[in-house]
Amino acid sequence: MSDQTLDLAGLVRVLIEPIVECKDDLEVTETVSDNGDMLIEIRVNEEDTGKVIGRQGRVIKAIRTLVRAAAARTDQHVDVELLD
What is the pLDDT of residue 3? Predict the structure, then answer.
């Protein structure tokens, strides 16, 4: 299992693509800090922002939970941010 690599940015893209209407505007970037923590930034069209956030933030919270659970398999810390 140590040879397994996780594409967490790809996971985020797979989770968000069905939600948004403007798929061409979807950008998912992955940045790894010096201490190994990962930051995944999501940019969507302004019209799709509400869909990604969901009612009371439920959709983005669910995405964060899934990504963190996947990252926990390799003892990695991940933050997911939706940018304006």
Answer: 40
CB-based burial, 24-56: b 16+ in 10 Å, e otherwise: eebebeeeeeeeeebebbbebeeebbeebeeee
pLDDT digits (tens, 9 = 90+) for 37-63: 999 999 999 999 999 999 999 999 999
How far is CA 12 from each of CA 34, 43, 66, rounded to the nearest angstrom? 22, 11, 9
What top-level class would CATH report for the domain 8-83?
A: alpha beta
Listed by start position, the domains of the chain span: 8-83
The single residue listed with the structure tokens 């940015």 is: 9
Asked if 79 and 36 touch (Cβ cutoff 8 Å), the reply is no
Please name which of 51, 83, 66 lies closest in space to residue 8, comparing C-alpha atoms. 66
